[in-house]
Amino acid sequence: MNKTSFASGATQAESTNSNPRAFDLIGDIHGQAGLLCELLAKLGYRECDGVWRHPNRTAIFVGDLIDRGPSIRETLAIVRGMVTAGAALAVLGNHEFDALRYHLDPVRHSHLRTQLAATHTQFANHDAEWQSCLEWFRTLPLALDLGVIRVVHACWNDAAVQGLRVLPNPIDDTALRLLNDPNSNQGRAAELLLNGMRLELPGDLFVMTYRGVPMNWMRAKWWIPTAGQFYDDLAFPELDVVPRKSVVLPKIDSSTPAGLFDGYPASAAPVFFGHYSLPRDATPQPLASNAACLDYSVWKGGPLVAYRWDGERELSADKFITSMAE
Ligand SMILES: [Mn+2]
After folding, report:
1. Which class in CATH covers the domain with range 23-197+263-323?
2. What backbone torsions phi and psi does residue 44 show, to the nearest 5 degrees?
3. Rounded to an integer, what distance in angstroms lies between the CA atom of residue 158 and that of residue 173?
């Protein structure tokens, strides 16, 4: 079994570009190849022999390439072509992981069929190509630590990243089953990196989703230390926790998973992620000096968002670049 590092950057970060401080981080695409081409062109990438490249920069995709949009095959062809050619890096998104586990056991994961519908429809007469894409998903790391920056689909957590380093690349079926087991350490780590931090809400608190459905858990701002915060100040995207301002999170104690609720240290390398489907009309900006989300709901008509990183430790709102549907 090939035990190359699964989640570290050192062995994953092989690109033909020798400039270690010129990365373009690109948010969740969800099958919007037109917006992707427009964004790449805006960033100065050009298509040459079928591969989009920049002469001295590397693109990094934060995952969620598939599902929902009209041109999923083309999106995968572009991104995969860039990664294979060394013009880009990519991490696994929860949608790619869901595709892998669905195909491992379609009966057990029949609830994922709706989510995968657009992808399956568009690959309906291209089965060999889809199988090949699934094999490629197995080669994508769950996290990239390049030293100067970090990239993950939803949430960076040191312990979770460390715990997944020993897994094989490509992910074999045994490793996939482990990642899919919610009771294994690897399963919990994968859930955290791919779907982010969830907080169960105490008592009769609930969150109202944008669909008007009340839920007793919420996605939370993992880059902020949670102790002493109100639940409604930690909801992300910002939703109303009902009733408002009623419960403060308890202090971290020995029963709290180590490192989970400590926030993302201000001294750590900038971290880039997607996943959170932020409001499409929001102005892209960093969430902290060293944390930026690049998902502004492209699947709901929002912009495709990139961050042009040139070595800065402190991220800046003027370095977000977007492409928008007409
Ligand atoms: Mn996602």
Report:
1. alpha beta
2. 95, 15
3. 25
Q: 64 C-alpha to center of ligand 1: Å?
A: 6
| Nearest CA-CA partner of 78 in 295, 304, 262, 276 | 304
Q: How far is the CA of 137 from the centre of ligand 1 (A)?
A: 15
CA 40 to chain centre: 19
Write down the pTM of the prediction: 0.92
| Sequence letter at residue 21 | R
What is the distance in A from the centroid of ligand 1 to the CA of 35?
Answer: 18
CA–CA gap between residue 59 and residue 36 (Å, rounded):
12
Residue 150 pLDDT > 70, yes or no? yes
Residue 49 C-alpha to ligand 1 middle, in angstroms?
31
pLDDT above 80: residue 3: no
State pLDDT tens for residues 269-307.
999 999 999 999 999 999 999 999 999 999 999 999 999
CA of 294 to the centre of ligand 1 (A): 11
Residue 157, CB-side half-sphere exposure with 13 Å CA sphere:
27
Task: Say how many Å lie between the CA of residue 83 and the centre of ligand 1.
Answer: 20
Ligand 1 centroid, distance to 254 Cα (angstroms): 31
Q: Where are the domains of the chain?
A: 23-197+263-323, 198-259
